[in-house]
Write a structure and sequence with these properties.
single chain, 303 residues, alpha/beta, Rossmann fold, 2 domains, four-stranded parallel β-sheet, 10 helices, 46% helix, 11% strand, binds zinc ion
Amino acid sequence: MKMKLFLAALIAALLGTTQVNAAKVRVVATLTDLADLTRNVGGEFVEVRSLATGIEDTHGVPMKPSFVPLLNRADLVVLVGFDCEHAFLPALLEASKNPKLQPGKPGYVDCSKGISPLEVPKSTDHSEGDVHPFGNPHYMLDPVLAKTAVRNICDALVAVAPEHEADFVKNRDVYLAKLDAKFVEWQAALAPFKGTKFVSYHGHWHYFAQRFGLVYYGTIELKPGVDPTARHIEGLVSSMKADHVPIVVREPQFPEKVPALIAKQTGATLIKLPIMPGGVPDTETYIAEMDYIVHSFVSALQK
Ligand SMILES: [Zn+2]
């Protein structure tokens, strides 16, 4: 008798669990920043996985076999857009055979909707690099543009689970208010350094520099996705010296050797900055990542 009761309780518990899980919207985000925004808006009604862990190249997240069943079962795929994920996402979506997630479907959540890209190439012949064909996709490093991504994610969640609309909208507004308050803080922290020049390996920082009044002086890469030549590095070093560029940013997915050499030759400070949450320790959320970036600039420039 006891056993029967136990089994009945177990079955009830399992059914209960299944029902709760079934009600959750299953989301796959390409990058960790979008996963974090989705968790903030979706709250208890979403189950979010990110393809990237935070340390990868945003243009080349290594494809794992486990991604295919994950996408096959998902209700939404949340992406940066502007072809940022061109090297891995289209192939994964094709392999997933999930009709809900294909481009143009409501489950395909392009967070760039409503954002005007910087650095749109004049031609599409790839002469200006291979990885930014529709302009620079790294708008997430601008917390004001990240708000557009939050709104796009909310709209997509409401479309797929309208029964939770009130919760999604409330969560969205709470998060946007939190982001606004942090933005005021970040702006104040960087305000004394307006006009400061810096370089980085890849062109991640145009939107960030523009938003905070810094000057993105150039990239160590020759063009987006194209390694530097010796001549390019020599030219960059001599102009950085002439213009007193004080900061070299190194993104975690690129080797330290060349950025460190350039910093040494120019007397600039080398800082390693994440380009999405998880890129360096203690940056597990978007806000923590931006905090880390702003504080790293401030402490390097206060030296
Ligand atoms: Zn890029």
